[in-house]
Amino acid sequence: MAKIILFTHQKGGVGKSTLSFNVANLLNQHAKVGLIDWDYQGTLLQVRELNDQLTYIDVDRDVKKIPHSDFDFIIIDTPPYIFEEIHALVKLANLIVIPTQASINDLLAIDKTVQIIKENEAVDRSIIVFNRIKSNSSLKEKLTENFNELQIPIANSIINDYDAITNSIVTKGVEVKHKANNQLQNLTTELITKLLSNG
Ligand SMILES: Nc1ncnc2c1ncn2[C@@H]1O[C@H](COP(=O)(O)OP(=O)(O)OP(=O)(O)O)[C@@H](O)[C@H]1O
Ligand SMILES: [Mg+2]
Predict the structure, then answer these.
(1) Domain boundaries 3-197, corresponding CATH code
(2) Residue 131 CB less than 6 A away from ligand 1
(3) What gap in Å lies between CA 97 and CA 88, rounded to an integer?
(4) How far apart are the first and last CA of the chain?
(5) Where is each CobQ/CobB/MinD/ParA nucleotide binding domain found (predicted)?
(6) Which of 144, 145, 155, 192 to pair with 1, CA 20 to 30 A apart?
(7) Looking at the predicted structure, is the pLDDT value of residue 122 above 90?
(8) What's the rounded Cα separation, in Å, for the pair 111 and 124?
């Protein structure tokens, strides 16, 4: 049975598509990975032809069509709003990743997503990931206490803002020797460790 990793946050531009792509791409080197673009914007589908290393799955936004038995991991990218199937996907997911930038706006916008996680008793299966953190910025530290109050686990791994990550969906990921690749690897390891410890 595939482990399902859902990337969600009702706010736009936090890095759902970028991080789901990169985590899928790194896991794909060791395991059978399927990638589902649940977003009508189709950010990941648009670059499908440039990423023939990945297996894209089309389930027509039907939760029942997710092919659990064909993959080790299924990564799902979701839209920047509350959509019909979100509750079903949160119930189903083995891990829910909530990327966020470190800003007051992002903190204010995260509430609805957190509420859905709590309603579906998925707090232990969820993790907030700080993304696009500017080097030398102290915003993350300043906001840590506020994010802690959400009572959703926060990843130790953080992802800085790198041009290499911006471009990664059209360059088959980030170059191995780039610092950004280390951060994405560390995040992927942390996510898998959490997945396995959740059973
Ligand atoms: N760590 C990063 N470093 C640099 N650029 C990044 C990083 N993460 C995301 N980006 C860029 O930020 C923009 C928004 O990212 P992305 O499209 O992944 O967000 P999203 O949450 O999927 O947005 P939407 O909600 O609209 O689907 C993109 O241009 C992407 O390339
Ligand atoms: Mg997206």
Answers:
(1) 3.40.50.300
(2) yes
(3) 15
(4) 12
(5) 5-159
(6) 155
(7) yes
(8) 17
What would the pLDDT profile of 151-191 be if each residue is shown by its tens digit?
999 999 999 999 999 999 999 999 999 999 999 999 999 99
pLDDT tens profile 29-85: 999 999 999 998 989 999 999 999 999 999 999 999 999 999 999 999 999 999 999
Per-domain residue ranges for the chain?
A: 3-197
| Distance, CA of 92 to CA of 120 (rounded, Å) | 10
CA of 39 to the centre of ligand 2 (A): 7
Question: With a 6 A CB cut-off, is 167 part of the ligand 1 pocket?
Answer: no
Distance 139 CA to ligand 1 centre (A): 19
Q: Which atom of ligand 1 is nearest to the CA of 133?
A: 1
Can you tell me the distance from the alpha carbon of 5 to that of 149, in angstroms, rounded to the nearest whole number? Answer: 24
In the prediction, which pLDDT does 199 show? 63
Query: Of ligand 1's atoms, which has the minimum distance to the CA of residue 18?
Result: 18
